[in-house]
Amino acid sequence: MLRFAVVGYGFMGTVHARTLMAHPDVELAAVVDEDADRLSQITAGNIDLADVAPLPPSVKRLRHFDALLDDGNLNGVSICLPTHLHRRYAVAALEAGLDVVCEKPMALNLEDCDAMIEASRANGRRLFIAQCIRFWPEYEVLERTVRSGDLGDLMSLSLHRLSAPPGWGGDKGWFWDGEKSGGCLFDLHVHDLDFLHQLLGEPESVQSRGLHDSNGINTAVTTLYHYPGGPLCCSEGSWLRPAGFKMSYFAVFERGELQYDSSAAPTISRGEGVFEPIELPEGDGYSREYDYFIRCLAGNEKGDRMTPQSARTSIKIALAEARSIRSGKPEPISGEEAE
Question: Are 197 and 248 in contact (CB under 8 A)?
Answer without folding.
Answer: no
